[in-house]
Prior knowledge:
About 45% of the residues lie in helices and about 15% in strands. The chain is an alpha/beta fold. It has a domain of about 150 residues: 3-Layer(aba) Sandwich (Rossmann fold), CATH 3.40.50. The strands form 2 sheets. A 7-stranded parallel sheet has the order 4-3-2-1-5-6-7, sandwiched between helices. The protein has a 4-stranded mixed sheet with strand order 9-8-10-11, with helices on one face. Helix 2 links the parallel strand 2 and strand 3. The longest helix has 21 residues. The protein starts with a strand and ends with a helix.
Amino acid sequence: MKAISVLGSTGSIGTQTLQIAKEFPNQFKVVALTAGKNLDLLIKQIHHHRPEVVALANENDLPELKERLNQLKSREKDFSNFNPHLFAGSEGLNIAASWNTADLVVTGIVGCAGLLPTLSAIQAGKDIALANKETLIAAGPVVLPELKLSGSRLLPADSEHSAIFQCLQGTPWPENARLSTGIPTPGLKNILLTASGGAFRDWSAQDLKNATVKDATSHPNWSMGKKITVDSATLMNKGLEVIEAHYLFGLDYEHIEIVIHPQSIIHSMIELADSSVLAQMGWPDMKLPILFAMSWPKRIETPWKKLNLSQVRKLTFLEPNTKKYPCMELAYSAGKTGGTMPAVLNAANEEAVGLFLEEKIHFVNIPKVIEKACEKHKQDLKSDPKLNDVIEVDKWARKEVRSEVQKHSHQMLIAT
């Protein structure tokens, strides 16, 4: 049985992880939970899983959590002796992430907020089921040395990188390269990341001037949080995945391609040196890659719906339109530049998407404010960043985007 720590337990990745733990109680035990504001859901999770430790992102919410737990203990006799360790704030998240009894840490905290807890887990030698892209995108040069020092293993928990990882299980590669990020896999020639095309895959570039928040957050295939759904609509999610794949699997950017695959049945492919192409397939369900990361190196038999290709009927592929999806090219450029540029790209994107969801900028202006921040950062680029450099440029990029939008607020609401 594996003991699991879940970072971001009330989010999309966290809730699905806990569903898996609930479905396979003989395989997984939840020992630590961290959460944000959703105390109603968190209490339900604590009630079922009875973790050893719970940590909240905001220290101001800790008194309410304690009160609710006291009510639970007074209401139900079998909880009278239940006394989990309670923490809050950044230090509390780090404690839960590195909890001594945990074997595996599932990183479901969205955005750069998940970086420090993930680093704490790595430094504690924990295996990581990585669902937080920003850990490698913003801080790949910082994370890779920490992995080598601690011996932690990164197990990709998002669908595309899990697909690549699963396909690589059938290739001959040395044991020391198996899960050491940044080491190229022998025989691996190209990575093909599949993209659904998002909410606007059937829209023309010209039609995007009419896009609304409701349109952008209505994904045709996947059920995800609002931020990642918007990233899917801009194809920034795929650009960020290119950077992550570079750090995970060691290939340069010329050998990582994006392919539009509307059905979302093939989750990604690899091309090997002998020209063979391997693909991992399944229904679009995030529980599949999460389970593989949790159970690796084993596979667990599930009662879940099996893929029926006669129901799918056809699989189609398209080359992405760079004019329609400028964020994709911004990500490639940032990745090739390296250093602190991917951190700026990531932070600027988070802020731009947040402003769009707040209806303070138009959808088509998301890539424009990101590009301005990246261009401005070129003069201060650090090619070999340390953790403090990543944190500082993250803060700078967010402030820069907010400032730019404030200065041009009227224009930003217009599709230009």
